[in-house]
Here is the input.
Amino acid sequence: MTTHLRASPETCAWGYFDAALDPVLEVQSGDVVVIDTVSGGPDHTPSQGGGFDIPPELLDIHARSPRQLPGHILTGPVAVAGAKPGHVLEVQILDVTLRQNWGWNLIRPLAGTLPEDFQTGRTEIIPLDLDAMVARLSWGLDLPLNPFFGVMGVAPPPNWGRVSTIQPRAFGGNLDNKELVAGTTLYLPVFAEGALFSCGDGHGAQGDGEVCVTAIETALQGTFRLILSEDMDLRYPRAQTPTHLITMGMHEDLDRCVEMALRDMIEWVVARTGISREDAYMLCSLAGDLRITQTVNGNKGVHMMMEAALLTSNGQ
Here is the structure.
């Protein structure tokens, strides 16, 4: 079954995750849901009549949905029937498409990876050529687009209450991982009844690091298959591309991020192959790639990538 969930003041939460939110949609495990998202506040929106397609629901959300916490506009939450704490939600990202012909990028003093180097705030509206799939940057560069969702997550543990979408945590959220494009599967540990999946923070393109605070922020439509797993033991988000396994670490300290992503990859490699922890540690040193996901969300991010084919060779 496929359901289309449109963005609106009734289906979006601005700035927060909260296990107490009522779901705007319930699906069965294995169902496909098409989710529309929007991005940005009034200060990030071009003037009407300038040739840009502005989703009317974005203006409606600005008018009728006050931002509860600093953060992103999320569409959801979507409940998956039967999901309980301890389960895992498998989010198969089937398709990601752009919904508008513009995006925005923000530089803000006292924020970003160089918080004191840029003292003048700036918001840039970036035209997007949806046919050529490039962003037209102001100095003449055509930057290839590679859309993905910066934020995908389930509800946090109920005792956490309402939390901002800015900091990525164990429930996922603002992962800002540019590997999570169409064809990738994201695995999220479930902390609340129904799982309560939400997404937003659409990106047209982003580099590892997202150093100036934002990517090309834009409106996206995502097609997801949501599958409930009751027999996976997962404490932190993982992902799998067609070619690689991905583990993640999020913490204020990048060293801790590295340790988290590495430990989880060692555990995953051992589970997949049956080799010893020492051999898995060595393999991570010889073939695993640690990458900085982002350095701007309070909790920074590091992800480790391991080629899946290496875990099925030599008769394993």
